[in-house]
Amino acid sequence: MRVMVVLAHPSAESLNAAIAQRALQALTRGGHEIYFHDLCREGFDPLLQGREMRKDAHLTPSVDEHCAELRVSDGLIVVHPNWWGMPPAVLKGWIDRVIRPGVAYEFTDGDSGEGVPVGLLAGKTGLVFNTSDTPDARERGVFGDPLERIWKDCIFGFCGITDFHRKVFNVVVTSTPAQRAGWLDEVEATVNACFPPVGGGN
């Protein structure tokens, strides 16, 4: 399988970075082809320019590459922290520029954009790993877990991805090394479940 992995965290020493690396290791051992982007390290420009908004717009080489990889991938893994109930700005910009018409969704003939789009990513698997400093009960009871709705319905569901999985690791700020090691084992197990190793692995 071909799997696109996107990391959105500014620190190479973060739990997010470790999660992404464990996911990459699992995919590599599983015999999968990987497209990996560390958005902050690569300096991905999150600003959507007006000239890019049209379906037939001329894209920068970087965005064009990301779009091409998304088209051919069998799955997408996204790793990011929960900041204010939202993805970091660099990831929001990536969504704006890469999850675009003609790549991730399109409207039928005669629909000017007011209707329900056709998802072009149907059949792919979506997996999101989030970190948070908020306990589950407070995240769900007080805030309503907005990231679940954003990824499951507003992004993946909108684009036709129904095979959706998400894991949240919290509370990071008070976690122990043993807890983090256990979380990384969960990452590997989840990746292997979503993207089974070729030939059963070893």
Topology:
Elements lengths: L1 E6 L7 H15 L3 E6 H4 L18 H12 L2 E7 L7 H10 L6 E2 L11 E2 L5 E7 L4 H8 L2 H12 L5 E7 L7 H18 L8
Parallel strand pairs: 1-2, 1-3, 3-6, 6-7
Antiparallel strand pairs: 4-5
Helix pairs in contact: 1-7
Indicate the low-confidence ranges by residue numbers.
none
In percent, how helical is the residue content? 25-40%
User: Which structural category do the helix and sheet elements fall into?
Assistant: alpha/beta
User: Mean of residue pLDDT?
Assistant: 95
H/E topology pattern: EHEHHEHEEEHHEH
| Rg calc | 17 Å
Task: Report on this structure.
The strands form two sheets. Strands 2-1-3-6-7 form a five-stranded parallel sheet, with helices on both faces. It has a two-stranded antiparallel sheet with strand order 4-5. The protein is an alpha/beta fold and 202 residues long. 39% of the residues lie in helices and 18% in strands. Helix 1 packs parallel to helix 7. It has seven helices and seven strands; from the N terminus they run βαβααβαβββααβα.
Task: Please name the defining characteristics of this protein.
two-stranded antiparallel sheet; alpha/beta; 7 helices; 202 residues; 39% helix; five-stranded parallel sheet
